[in-house]
Amino acid sequence: MPWRCNGVTIDGNADHKHDEIDVNTIFCPQCGLAQEQIAPPPSPPPFQLKCPVKIPQLIISCALLVGGLVGGGLIFQQFQFSDASTEGTAVPSVERPVFANENESSPAVEKPGFYKDVRYGVSIYYPEVWELRKPSRNYPPDVLAATKDLFQLIISNQDDSYVENILVKIEQVTDDSLYVGEYANLQVERIRQIGTFNIDGDRVIDLNGQPAREIIYSGHDGEYAIKRKRIIAGPALPGDYFFLITYTADQNDYDKYLSDVEHVFSSISLLK
User: Fold this and answer.
1) Sheet holding 197-207: strands in order across?
2) Does residue 164 form part of some domain?
3) Is the full-model pTM beyond 0.70?
4) 141 in a domain, yes or no?
5) pLDDT of residue 260 exceeding 90
6) Mean pLDDT computed over 44-69
7) What are phi and psi of 184, to 5 degrees?
8) Considering the domain boundaries, does residue 193 fall inside one?
9) Is the pLDDT of residue 99 over 90?
10) What is the domain range of residue 171?
């Protein structure tokens, strides 16, 4: 469902502020934020009846109105109005839409510590104490130029101030000539355009026999100081989709989980 974005987050951070635009994807193409990170538009002011007539005139007019309605046999239909803008609890941004453990939108193989998405061709091993989450909704597979979240691994305890996680997603492209190096350069440029992150590392790596790009960057996402390690792998065929596998952590806890994360990354297999 389309939504509107102006780059101002729910905690009032205006670092990404821009002119309000309609967005039809999960993340805003202007600022890179997700819908749940954006402050909802202000509710319209409550309706107030402005009546310039004096009290005696008002009483007489109301009496005539009620008498006319009763005499004419009109039926009133009742409506219930609710304010859609209810207060909620701000949660740490983990670069994802709302997730729920519901039915999968694509064929998959799942068992403790292992997950394989058959449709998009990726498998991964992870510690069994981690939680696997799958998207409750997603774009259909034939939608091009769209980012799709495949699944997410929740690493840290919910009591932590920031929920460390690994997000696996794909981005489909329409440019048949775009390969992993050029696409990774575009990703780096997107990160720099946000303006709140610094590139800490950028190198070519081997992902189980397939060349990939590893980008490490850190900075502020709203009120949180975070650090990310992102692996970008190219499509099996030109014009297909790119994989983005991102570990996100609080800067102070980044190294705490890094050893397990490295083992998980080394287990990733992109299937033909």
Assistant:
1) 131-133, 147-154, 165-172, 241-250, 224-233, 210-221, 197-207
2) yes
3) no
4) yes
5) yes
6) 45
7) -65, -40
8) yes
9) no
10) 108-270
